[in-house]
Design a protein that fits this description.
It is a single chain. By secondary structure, the protein is α/β, with parallel strands linked by helices. It has one domain (about 5-224): TIM Barrel. The protein has eight helices and ten strands. Helix 3 runs parallel beside helix 4 (about 90-100) and helix 7 runs parallel beside helix 8.
């Protein structure tokens, strides 16, 4: 059994991207304009960082835009391998995205806050390549679309993993102290982390090392 896919998010510079990749990251997350949350950089920085990431490492553009026209324009500027849609995007818009960007991976974020999230996840799998389960809240006056540092109900996350036939990445309050338990309980395709591997808002090599040790431990437990 190979190690889970590990995405290190909130990357803010080419140097941070290099540190994450050297530690073992499968992907780096680049956060564009958001209503709230950490790690936001401008689209020019996204483009510059993404251009310097060597394959096979994936580059995720986190976008809060909700129309295909706007998302397509942003992608053409930033040129990442993957679009992480952090807010709800209507099926018609997803179909347009798929048609316009057939070689770009589409990852829809599901903010897990109740049983309805399971059905939402199942319904959107027809249009995207993967799901990412997070702990935001789209119903607040200022939307939370990620980076909350909170965990959510992993039992619901596990239901989504079982019910959906696309890869599922788990996010939300994960860190070296709980990542092993999360992987064992939810059995996701991958995991996504941001603040828990940073110190004073900078990527911390020692925390990254602890993270990957914990991921390997979880992998060994599942192989027993």
């Amino acid at each position: 059994m190979g190690l889970p896919f590990v995405k290190i998010c909130c990357i803010s510079s080419p140097e941070e991207a290099s540190v994450a990749i050297a530690a073992g990251a499968s992907a780096v997350g680049l956060v564009s304009a958001m209503p709230s949350g950490p790690g936001v950089i401008d689209d020019e920085a996204v483009r510059q960082i993404a251009a310097g990431v060597p394959p096979p490492t994936a580059t995720f553009l986190l976008t809060a835009l909700q129309t295909a026209r706007e998302i397509i324009a942003q992608h053409h500027f930033c040129n990442t391998t993957t679009l992480q849609l952090v807010d709800r995007v209507a099926p018609a818009e997803l179909r347009e995205l798929r048609q316009a960007l057939p070689d770009v991976q589409l990852v829809q974020v599901i903010h897990v806050n109740g049983e309805a999230s399971v059905q939402e996840a199942v319904e959107v799998t027809h249009y995207v390549d993967a799901l990412l389960l997070d702990s935001g809240n789209q119903n607040l006056a200022v939307k939370e679309l990620g980076g909350t540092g909170r965990t959510h109900n992993w039992e619901l996350s596990r239901e989504i993993v079982v019910a959906c036939d696309v890869p599922v990445i788990l996010a939300g309050g994960l860190g070296p102290s709980n990542i092993s338990e999360a992987i064992v309980r939810v059995k996701p395709y991958g995991v996504d982390l941001c603040s828990s591997v940073r110190t004073d808002d900078k990527l911390d090599k020692s925390k990254l090392l602890a993270l990957f040790e914990a991921v390997r431990s979880a992998n060994l437990i599942q192989e027993l």
